[in-house]
Amino acid sequence: MIKMDILIIDDFFAASTVKKDVEKFVRSIEMANSAEDALIKVSNNKFDLVLLSISSKVFDGCELIQQVKSICPDIKIVTMTDRNYRDLELKIRKQGVLFYMITPFNKKVLKEIVDYISKSKEKLQIERLQKFHHELARL
Predict the structure, then answer these.
(1) Domain residue ranges of the chain, discontinuous segments joined by +
(2) Coil, strand, or helix at residue 128?
(3) pLDDT tens for residues 75-122?
(4) What's the whole-model pTM score?
(5) Under CATH, what is the fold of the domain 2-138?
(6) Helices 61-71 and 35-44 sit at what angle, rounded to 10 degrees?
(7) Handedness of CA 45, 39, 87, 57 (dihedral sign)
């Protein structure tokens, strides 16, 4: 099991499907079906990753990226869309998302993305700990 906390932001049916694909290999998953619910959850919890639908009819995914990043600048975001337009992809990538995924996507690819983010998180934690010990040793 990967020690990651994930928030899926999408309509209920799609979020439930993605949750089933991911919940087997992560610590916890929450779902948000609206922008308001997503922002409340991001404000009140520490998520490692957000899986965000940018083609939702309920909210503007592009705008929501900015709002989530304003609350938690270091959060990792992977977008999901059923619309593969080059201008949309460029707009999304400029907002600092890690991956732009076209649905439907392969479960194995999603697991590899989660593994990559988890390993990056662990590496950062180790680097911070080493820096702390180095500074402590200088005292």
Answers:
(1) 2-138
(2) helix
(3) 999 998 887 788 888 888 899 898 888 877 777 888 888 888 888 776
(4) 0.79
(5) Rossmann fold (3.40.50)
(6) 20
(7) positive
